[in-house]
Specification:
With 177 residues, the chain is mostly helical. The protein has helices spanning 3-28, 33-67, 72-89, 92-176. This is RAB6-interacting golgin.
Length: 177
């Protein structure tokens, strides 16, 4: 395996790990804007590196084509290089990466409206909670006022009853004399 192939494999592996980490973060953080940017950045980096790999692969193929007219020994060696390049393009990992990228894109598309729905529901919840708290505050004020009025009414009734009681006692005392 050549150094370029090993570097490419390591790069793809580190990018897949980055995508997995950023994918996990976006699921656990309810799709924060920063997480979405991180995910998009990781995908952009991955795509750029894939394009770079494809570009380098094309450059190698062009050199092989240019050298085909040389010595037969070189022709055999170049044929081996071409076979290795063909193996790279048909590598099962490339198909798996393509499938996973499509799945990530699909999930991102599904997450966007869900995130918007969550934000809308959070706003509605906050508005309902504010309205509830306002009505509850109003209720507390009304109950407090009611208790004050009931207490005032009871105090007035007690005073009136005491006055009536004194009046009755005074009338009874006058009768006795």
């Amino acid at each position: 395996m050549s150094t370029t192939q090993r570097k490419g494999g390591e790069t793809m592996q580190s990018l897949m790990q980055s995508e997995q980490v950023s994918g996990s973060l976006s699921f656990t953080n309810s799709l924060n804007k920063g997480d979405e940017d991180l995910s998009n950045s990781a995908l952009s980096t991955f795509k750029a590196r894939e394009e770079e790999i494809e570009k380098k692969k094309l450059e190698v193929k062009e050199r092989v084509q240019a050298q085909l007219g040389r010595v037969e020994e070189e022709t055999k060696r170049l044929a081996l290089i071409r076979e290795e390049l063909d193996v790279l393009s048909d590598h099962p990992m490339n198909k798996e990466i393509t499938v996973l990228r499509k799945k990530v894109d699909t999930v991102n598309k599904e997450l966007k409206p869900l995130g918007q729905t969550c934000q809308k529901k959070e706003r509605e919840y906050k508005e309902a909670l504010d309205a509830f708290n306002e009505k509850n505050k109003e209720k507390v004020q009304l109950v407090t006022k009611l208790m004050e009025l009931v207490e005032e009414s009871e105090t007035l009734r007690l005073k009136k009853l005491e006055e009536l009681s004194k009046s009755i006692e005074a009338a009874e005392m006058k009768k006795e004399h």
